[in-house]
Amino acid sequence: MLKTTSIDELKQISLFRQFTEEELRYLAQNLEERECEKGETIYKEEEVQGILYLVQKGAVEITKKTPSGHRQVIAMILTGKFFGELSFFEGRRHAARAQTTVNTRLLLLHRSVYDEMEKDRPSLVHRLLREIILTISTNLDTMNDSFLKMINYTFYGGKAGNIEMPGE
């Protein structure tokens, strides 16, 4: 049960923007709140937790270890955003490490709570999944754009490539 975060604060999180007051009250009773100090590791690579994390306040850095042993930042998760969704939905091990960069307050949705919501509150789960899918879609578009810019820079030195596609 949330102690510090109010229903009004839940409304500010984009993931919950379509939720009713009653649904937000339900979430307030079923989400876990966690205060983290700057530099605290939330999870490590290869851990399995089954938790969807929402940054209520603060920032989390997602890093992956390269073959040379260097930690590469792959994402910064800021206030109002979520992470851990692949492990949450697929039950797979985390492929990266999550660590706070400042003092951070997280809201945790445990998989067992989600499973109960599926049975008891299907419309809430529908809205939640819709928002998660829209966010993942936006993230994928951003990654695709970044990949194309990297390819353009790598092969054309940042200049527009002059490649003709078949049928053009």
Describe the structure.
It is a single chain. The protein has 168 residues and is α+β, with helices and mostly antiparallel strands. 39% of the residues lie in helices and 26% in strands. The chain contains five helices and eight strands; from the N terminus they run H-H-E-E-E-E-E-E-H-E-E-H-H. Strands 1-8-3-6 form a four-stranded antiparallel sheet. Strands 2-7-4-5 form a four-stranded antiparallel sheet, with no helix packed on it. A hairpin with a 5-residue loop joins strand 4 and strand 5. Helix 4 crosses helix 5. It is globular and about 55 Å long.
In a nutshell, what does this entry contain?
The protein has helices spanning 7-11, 21-30, 85-90, 111-120, 122-156, and strands at 32-36, 41-43, 51-57, 59-65, 71-78, 82-83, 97-100, 104-110.
